[in-house]
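Lesson 9: reading folded outputs for more than one chain in a single document. The general rule is that every protein is listed as its sequence immediately followed by its structure tokens, and records are never interleaved. Here is the first one.
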Amino acid sequence: MARVLLKLLQIKETAPGVVMKKVIQPLAWFVVLTSVLALASGVSLGLV
């Protein structure tokens, strides 16, 4: 498992990997934050 992660990190150090990481990371954060907000609003609506 650790070897696979190291290989992935080495791949990300290449130029296309860095570009993909810069593109995907904000999208991933957006998805995570919106899902957390949706979950929180759903819970708050359930409590009301």
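And here is the second record, again sequence then tokens.
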Amino acid sequence: MSRARPNATNRPSVSRTAAVARSVLEGARRGNGASLFHLKTVLTPGNFNLDILDILVSHLDEQLVPDVQDEGEHLAPLTDVSVRALHCISALSAVIGGCEKKPSLKEPAVERILQVFDGIIAWIYVLLYHGLGDPPERQVGVDFRNAYFFHAKQLLDLINFDERLLQAILNSISATDLVIKFFITTGKRHACFQNLDNPDGCPIVSLVSKCVESPQGLEAVGTRIFAIRPEMPARVMRNTMERAVQIQVWVKDVRGPSRLVSGTRHFDRLVQLIHRLLKYRPLVPLFATIDKLEGFETLPTIATSTFMHKNFFPQFFTLALNVTTLPITSVRYVKNVMELVHAAFTLFMACLGMCNDAIPDSMATLEGVVDAFVSYSLIPSACFVTHSDIKEVPPSALSPIRPYPAFDVSWKWLFLAITKRWEVFQNIPRAPRAVVLGGLVPQSSITGGKFGSCLPICDNLVCPIVREEFFVGGSKKCTRCSSVVYCSEQCQKEDWKARHKYECDHARVLYIDHKSSQHWYSNKTRLGHMALIEDVFNATAEGLEYDPEARAKRLQSSTNSADRLFDLLVSQKSEPDKRVSPPSPVKDEQDLAKRLPDRIYLFQPGLYAPKLDDYPKIPSGRPTSWAPPYLHKRLNELLAEGSDPGKALSIRYALGVMPWGTDKVRLMVKLRWTQDYGFEALHSVAIAATFSSHV
């Protein structure tokens, strides 16, 4: 097909402020391809006006877009109208520059662009279908990816130009699909499109990052990822991993400081994009299937082997933070997440070993990384992984950054937390039975009775099994869990599948999605959580000092707390459909506990920060055998002695998550040994219990 194209070598030399010739404008208005090409060539921010914009948008109307045939059929013939649309889209960069130079033109210009925005999106689809970018000539040797880079850059410029254009993308299904198309399209050998030669970053990665920057954008793009095809989430993750490998290969091909600096920036942008995508909760089920997460644990390894340089360690600390702050509720469902934790910890230690001078701006990031690893150490398998790396590294190894005492404290806390928890986990006996989440047992495990040989215990450290209040006034049980009833009369009226799992404050973080419902939650992990809580009690009750020898003597003279807890749960669950009252304290404990509080409130999960008034109180006259009345006064005295109201809330939460019985009375009595440390001890237990309830 013949199309009139001006010779690029004979383009007229026009001043940046010279007005566009009238003949060119008239020809462009009539749709002459040569005139539109000439207009695009001579248009500058200096000679732009709204009349020119009217000409451009007239050729971008959605009604002019031709039908594009389905994939697998022959390409539809390229028409002059498509080339004219390409020239108009290419001229939008000059339009944006003209509005920045003349701010008075921005408002009417944005309104005109919004009127034809759907047409712009539709035209980009057609032009990508034909592989047309700027320049439009498809010559031998011209990379097909250039069209994707060009149009992604045009869209990126538009949404950076005005926030309303970004909202237009997020509100349009076809526009969000186009953004995803940019990201997942691959060429030969399934290589994804990524422009690493652009010093400002790959326009495709920048476009997607900009779209998911806000919660609204994350919801729009994340929803479309799931709405297009079921395999789309895994495809997005595989494409992301492919981009990371491309960056690594690109840096190693040409070794040099400039290539390393540029590659570090590309890699950092990509990791930030991954972190934003994984904040969208529906993407969490990706962790439930190992093959969908395959290669993700290589991100820290790539960073360690390729981008390690002492001048860039703040970016690496940020990378370690992004990797370690993935949704923590998923870490117990996937085996290779432990590999991810190990790789991230290796990256963290490598960063500390290479930095010679600490930058104060990085201290907040370092604190976040330390907090993440402290949280992971509450999981026995993750604790063993990190302990294997840290056991040979004394605190003195961090001397290069010792001018900052704040981080010395954090490092000591990380070192001691991992070491102490590893010692606690070493003393956990092998569980006599397995615990299955929600009573859902694989068929092969059913050997007899309703639940076979497996003990159905709800995955809920504030489980209503031990709360008599939940059994008063109702008996309807959750359809997914045989161990609990609904947490309130209002929740009882709602169906579990429709609302309870997603809207109930208790159930929102205490249960997992249906796809992960049959994954095993090892009893060893649960026993480890409760053993850690007792260990914190023992340490704080004796003056906040950790004494391994004293603890060993206690272990020899008494039964392990985890064993007693397990026996207590087994005895209470031996008859699932009957109410079980906690055992009464012995006489000596009653005498000692007279100074303890007499009421324990209901507590919401630690992910939230509810007000004190949000905790419902026990109505008078209701049975309180689960919370003896002699506990109220002493707890109020302790809370009144504290200086931080936030600690009071966490203390109440900690007492709520601990199973009620003689164990709780015994542990609370221990805290009365040293009144000076009582408040801090309870608060430290609250922190441990909060972590344990949702890791």
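What the second record shows: The mean pLDDT is 59.
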